[in-house]
Amino acid sequence: MANEALDSRLKDNIPGLLLKMDIEKAFDHVNWDFLMEVMSKMGFGHRWINRMKWCCSTATFLILINGSPSGLFRSSRGLRQGDPLFPYLFLFAMEALSQLLSCARNGGFISGFRVGGRGREGLIVSHLLFADDTLIFCDADANQLQYLSWTFMWFEAISGLKVNLSKMEAILVGEGIPMETLASVLGCKIGSLPTSYLGLPLGAPYKATRVWDTMEERFKKRVCARLEKIQRDFLWGGGALENKPHLVSWKVICAAKKDGGLGIRNLATFKKALLGKWLWRFANENESLWKQIISSKYDLQEGGWCSKGARDRHGVGVWKAIRNGWENFRSHSRFIVGDGTRVKMGAEAWEENEVGGSWGLRFTRHLNDWEVGEVESLLSKLHPLTIRRGANDSLRWKENKNETFSVKSYYSSFSRAFKPSFPARTIWMPWVPIRTNFFGWEAAWCRLLTIDRLKRFGLEHPQQVINDLLNPTGQNLRIREDSQGTYVEGIKEEVVLSPAHALSLIAAGEVVVPTMNETPCVH
Q1: Is 444 helix (H, G, I), strand (E, B) or coil?
Q2: Chain-centre distance of CA 105, in angstroms?
Q3: How confident is the model over 75-94, as a mean pLDDT?
Q4: Is 122 in contact with 115 (CB distance < 8 Å)?
Q5: What's the CA gap between 496 and 233, in Å, rounded?
Q6: Could you give the CA distance from residue 494 to residue 472 in angstroms, rounded to a whole number?
Q7: Mean pLDDT over residues 517-522, rounded?
């Protein structure tokens, strides 16, 4: 949200100020009476308010003097850090500051940044709060800064929370304004773009390398490739990251165990699944501020389920990357028609309902004889599709039984096309050692390191070493070669509840090593 608001201001080419605010000893100075009054204004009952006041006021403290606890006393204000309840109470206190800033914006004392595009009026964003981390957007005007200083004084008087002006930063958005004069109004420091907010870059190009140097969460394609290489080397190198032959393709390994893989997540695919959560939230969270900002800037598609696509240089790359996944996301969802105001007939997949009104079609002209059949076909399709008055249209997720989006189900949908016939239950047995299971998995894919395969990799080993390599369980496995190729002879008899049990079921006599393909050789 902060990046979108800042981007809009820069594109409008209007100078402005970005204020990064800090609260001095935030939890320690909260006035209890003020906090209880805020809770009362928010609609909490007297019984609940009294309980919260009891939680705040009954704690006692000891001071260590020369290593000995002494001086038992009670506090008269503040919230204890580390208590799981008090961060939420602190948010109630900061809500008062948010309301004061909103009143200042509505009264015209501060302007905020206009977020919008393509000729629309836009949405005014004056501040963003996350706990005590606060951003304030205003014009580069000394009068507005003076109003803000008064607002901070009023907030301190009623809540006990003081704005730490020595740590506060005033950052110029745009050019041509002397910052020294403006910063002196508040007595704060002067900052510059790009900066950071909540640990993320703010005001920098989305693809700029320098701003992501300290961030490990931002995975580029080449970073994903490098991390996957580390995973592959770890898997095939026995945990030592050695450069050993990779016997099975990474695509197969990332498939689910029931589909012949190892269930390791593909990082690039997992990223797409995580971004899908924001598309689901956009379609369902109509009152969220972040959705209002995105909607105001990019405009909405018909129905309001997603924003329109961004133009070349319009907007910030974060939402562009999320928006690019809409078409694939849409293919895994369906619409439930309520009053029909958000679902376009003929363009969306409607879901049949059993209750509702009836269709009364009105044509702009009389039908020709050859059109009667087509109209009858249309009516037959419309008959089960009904309108439920008073109910809203909704988006449902196809991949879950409860029809609610989950990252897990979306990730699974990406690998659904990979469905070989694989004896997963035969291989992955809980009573068999995992090393034996893994050996059986390799055998099922015909990827054992036989003599001809070792030669193909340019490795020359004595016969005994090869036997040890093929035989991690200590059972009798034999190698024989003929004109047709190399074979691994397995155990014929079935030994129940032993490591050889899995191998006997997998080998079933002989496991042939054919050409390199992606089809299991055991069924």
Answers
A1: helix
A2: 32
A3: 87
A4: yes
A5: 34
A6: 18
A7: 52
> What gap in Å lies between CA 182 and CA 10, rounded to an integer?
19
Beta strand residue intervals within 16-140, DSSP E:
16-21, 23-24, 60-65, 68-74, 113-115, 123-125, 127-130, 133-139
Half-sphere exposure of 11 (CA within 13 A, CB side): 17
Kindly report the three-state secondary structure assignment for every residue of 88-116.
HHHHHHHHHHHHHHHHHHHCCCCCCEEEC
The full length of the chain comes to 523
Indicate if 28 and 136 belong to the same structural domain. yes
Both tokens of 503, joined, read: 């191998």
**For the chain, percent of residues with pLDDT exceeding 70:** 74
Give the single-character DSSP code of 212. G
pLDDT in tens, 264-281: 888 888 989 999 999 999
Go through 300-312 and write b for each residue having 16 or more CB atoms within 10 A of its CB, e for each that does not.
Answer: eeebebbbeebee
Structure tokens at 313: 């240089």
> Which of 394, 414, 434 is at the close of a domain?
414
Residues whose CB is less than 8 angstroms from the CB of residue 419 and which lie 6 or more positions away in sequence, other chains included: 259
State whether residue 308 is helix, strand or coil.
Answer: coil
At a CB cut-off of 8 Å and minimum separation 6, what does 64 contact?
Answer: 70
Q: What are the beta bridge partners of residue 317?
A: none
CA 514 to chain centre: 42
| 9 and 145 belong to one structural domain | yes
**Overall domain count for the chain:** 3
CB 293 within 8 A of CB 4: yes
Q: At what angle do helices 86-106 and 142-159 cross, to 10 degrees?
A: 140
Rounded Cα distance between 478 and 487, Å, is: 8
* CA nearest neighbour of 80 among 65, 90, 70: 90
Q: In terms of domains, do 407 and 445 share one?
A: no
What's the alpha-carbon Rg for the chain, to the nearest Å?
Answer: 33
What's the domain range around 406? 270-414
Six-digit token pair at 326?
Answer: 């809409």
- pLDDT (tens digit per residue) in 260-319: 888 888 888 898 999 999 999 999 988 888 898 888 888 888 778 888 877 656 666 778
Tell me if 220 is assigned to some domain.
no
SS3 content of the chain, % helix, strand, coil (to 5): 40, 15, 45
How many angstroms separate the CA atoms of 366 and 369, rounded? 10
Please report how the helices 32-41 and 86-106 are oriented relative to each other, as an axis angle in degrees rounded to 10. 70
Side chain identity, residue 45: G
Cα separation, 294 vs 8, whole angstroms = 11
Indicate the SS3 state at residue 180: helix
Query: Which amino acid makes up residue 489?
Result: E
Angstrom distances, CA of residue 64 to CA of 27, 50, 68, 342, 503: 22, 31, 5, 65, 66
Which of 355, 390, 414 represents a domain boundary (last residue)? 414
How far apart CA 232 and CA 218 sit, in angstroms, is 21
